[in-house]
Structures are given as structure tokens and as C-alpha cells.
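Example record

One chain of 264 residues, shown exactly as stored in the release files.
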Amino acid sequence: MPSTKVVDALFRVSTQLQDMAPQFTRWNEKELVTWLNDGQRAIAKYLPASCSRVDAIKLKPGTKQSIELLGAGNLLPGDGSPATAVYGNYLNDVVRNMGADGLTPGRAVRVVSREVLDSQNPDWHTITGAGRVEQFVFDPRAPKIFYVTPAVNDTPTWVEVSYLANPAEIPNTGTKAAPLYGVDSVNPAVISVDDKYIDDLVNYVLARAYMKDADFASSQSNASAYSGMFTSSLNAQVQALTGNNPNLAALPFATQAQIPAAAH
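Predicted C-alpha cells for this chain:
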């Protein structure tokens, strides 16, 4: 569970930008938070495990299930954090049944080939169970959808799933007169990528901030340096995990015209 507060992330950014007297004078909070959100999406795009989750979810009646949008009422976070809506993007596994309350560990759930089920019993989508499932079907070509058997009836049925989610959007409703994440704020909001990526996230925001002042030679140099640190770090981490280097040479989510050549 990420624990780095947005307040702390922006304190690092504003301190490095020498924008603390008062904070958010040259680079306002709204644009910094926008770049934090962009940075989270960039990290999650190339390092999906940065937003991995293991939660209990309530299944819908029938066989077809989805992780695309998990409402707060149908989700019990595995890390004990408060339930909020989550947008899933890739199912890893359905682990076990979790009873009628989402809190009671039960029978393991096994993955099975749809072709096997279709050949053994073409009517398997119509066979209902009694509060638990035994198997699930998954096709990586439709990574947000899975099917369970037996079909879920009206009995509340929860399962534990491992999946990848989109980063949660950091609220960005602060104003110049009333910022949400100033250095003295007690706002509890946290980043949604893993804490170990905080340096990458800060480097991303700093690169975007200095790109704003690209007309100045020193800002161009700083933007290039921080962009290079971000892309080099992601390239190295992705290669270490997958064996493939994405060879990022430009900062993701910035318009191409804004991006100075990354330092090599």
C-alpha cells in the first residue's frame, strides 16, 4: 500500500524548484498535481506492477465478470485501506472464495480452459452454484473480463483477485488562495504508485516544471537532466524485470515540442 503523501511529494518538488517562499508561487499547485497524475500514469504504463492489487471483490450474477470498474461497495481492499472505486486493467489471478461477506477465506479457485468447459458441457453458463465458485476462465486478449463457474446466483459471492489497476487520480481542486497540499497541510491523500517510485515521480514533475521555462537556457538544461533521470530509471527497471529495454528517450505525456533532448 503506498504511504507517501501528496503533501510530501510536492514538498520535495517545490524545495528543489526553490519555490517555497511561499510555496506554489512560480509553479502553482494545480499544474504540479496535474504533472503528478501524468507521472503516475507514465510509470504505470511501463511498470504495471507499480499499481498491482490483491482485493476481495463481489461477483455479479451469472458467469461473466469484470474488473474494469470496481465500485466501492463491491470491493474490500486487501491492504485494509478504505474502499474507493478502482479501475482495473489486467486480471492476474482469481485466488480463492471469500464467503458471503468478503472476509471469510474459502475454497481455492482454479483456472480452466474455456475450450475444455465448452466441450464437456456447452450449457455451463446456465449452471448456478450456491455462494461459491470453483473455476474461472480468462483470455488475455480481453484482460478486464473473466468468467466463473458455476454461475453466481443471488447469494452474495466474493472472491479474492490479483490484478493491475490504473493509478488513482490525485484530487486537483485546490486554488491559489486555498491549496490542498501545502507544506503545512494535513491532507491525507497519498500517491497511488508504490512508494519506491517516488524519486521517479519527483523527477518527472521537475522535468515538466522546467519545461515550462524552456525559453531560459538553465531551465532547458534542468529539464533535460530530470527527463534523462526519469527515462533512464524506467528503462533500467523495465529491462531488469522483462529483459526488454523500452529505450525511452523522451518524457511520456509531454507534448513533443516541450521535450528537450534527454541527457545521455
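Notes: The chain is about 30% helix and 20% strand.
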